[in-house]
Design a protein that fits this description.
The complex is a heterodimer. Chain A is mostly helical. In chain A, a hairpin with a 2-residue loop joins strand 1 (13-19) and strand 2 (22-28). Chain A has helices at 30-40, 45-56, 63-71, 82-88, 96-99, 101-112, 146-162, 166-184; strands at residues 13-19, 22-28, 125-126. Chain A is built from eight helices and three strands, in the order E-E-H-H-H-H-H-H-E-H-H. Chain B has a domain at 245-345. In chain B, a hairpin with a 4-residue loop joins strand 3 and strand 4 (105-109). In chain B, the strands form two sheets. Chain B has an eight-stranded antiparallel sheet. Chain B has a two-stranded antiparallel ribbon with strand order 6-7. Classes of the chains: A mainly alpha, B alpha+beta. At the A-B interface, helix 1, helix 6 and strand 3 of A face helix 3, strand 6, strand 7, helix 4 and strand 9 of B.
Amino acid sequence: MLCEQCGEREANVVIRETRNGNVTERHLCAQCAQSTELGSLFDEIPFVRILSGILGMAGGSRQKESEEDFAAVTCPTCGTGYAEFVKNGRFGCPDCYSTFGILMDGGIKKIQGSDRHMGKRPLMAGTPASVPEAESAAAVPEELSVSEQIQVLRERLSEAIAEEEYEEAARLRDEIRRLEKEAES
Amino acid sequence: MTKWYDEEGAGTSVVTASRIRLHRNIAGFPFPEKMADGDLKKLNAELADTAVGITGRFDLPADRFELGDLSGRARQALQERHLISSSLIEYTKPASMVLTKDESIALLFGGDDHLRLQVSVSGKNLEGAWARAGRTDDWFNERYPFAFDDKYGYLTAWPTHVGTGMRAYLILHLPILGRTRRFSSTVSEVGHFGIAVRNAFGPEEENYGDVYVIYNQQTLGQSEEEYIALVNKVGTELAVQEERLREAELGKRRSQWEDAVWRAYGTLRYARSLPLKESLELISRVRLGECLGLLKPEKTISLLPLMQGCLPATLCTVNHREAGEEELASLRAAYLRASFPDMMGE
């Protein structure tokens, strides 16, 4: 679907607003979403809405399933839950970046235009418990059961296919097969 | 003590000030929101102790205080001068501040992140502000490991700050450009480059006093220097457009402008009651008059301090009392009568 505003780019942000009990939805591309919504308010609130939009409706048809899948995810370090994160748009601790990393990866890229830090590096950095490479299967928190891990990987697989990242999709497919075998044995 | 913003140079007619803000967190702790109050208080105190060293090194005397010890009005006054964010006005968890007396360095401990570091300088000088912010950043980082990830960079409570954790701000006076019809399309155009334009004063939908703030919306994916270059580029472009329009206006309507700026000056010098919006517009006009050479004040008209001095919480704090709209208008007029310099050759 094309962006409602510019009609040129693919709409990848859904902004849901509730006014007097009526829910309206606007489908925009990331650029238009930023220039319109973010252009009008001083604080971070619209960012949150957009972020929540991206996370909550990441891929149209599979949105419902993914929300149910992730509803149970809670950060083991600080206890921030998925619903709390989507509501506030804010993380509770550095480890949240790994807990919600799977969710964040696409979302953060859409907001920030990039998902890779290029700037200053600290003189002294603490290693957060584990902030794994989001591309790797290790991004799936270990606390999840095998079937949960498979669900998460499937989610990532459909995202990879949607993004036309076929190499990544093939890798995820193999990873899912491996886990499925493991579950059988 | 003179504040940083009292030193607006004569050559900085459009770009009034530059500001760098950094968000940092100490590794091994949850972000403030998820910390127990006792732990947060202890960490804040440790960081504030450390801060004294860096302000001392810059030779800047500083105040240290707990936000919780301030009245709601005093916190609002800090917010009006952009030293804390609006979410901190009603914040109930422990938060400490180290603020240099000239207010050029504002360090907040607690709030959204463990450390919010802000450096402000007058004129167009993001590089200078960044150098100072970077040194302050290092001062803390030599003593505390920061929460950092190879992929995402500096980790912050808001994912909208992650990466560099840096926002670079330029404060611009655009009395002519800001009133043109094409300005709103210019704003959305620069939005495509990741630059946001906000009103410095007035509600979101209405600008009071023609002062605008521009900054990088994104914080991840480019280096600090690249973001600064981007903000500078857009700021310079807006400044050039403003200057061109000023020249053209002066060519076309010199006598009308001359009348308008002197009228504004007269009102500021003699009015007994001034609402906020009108005050800021008059200050803007007199400053424009100075920039156009239509009037020559004995000392330069410093936009930011004059405008900030008109804001409600600041007026209440300075006068040590609560005041309603009507009384505020008369306090404001008194403040402006006292603050406006004489004109040369009057």
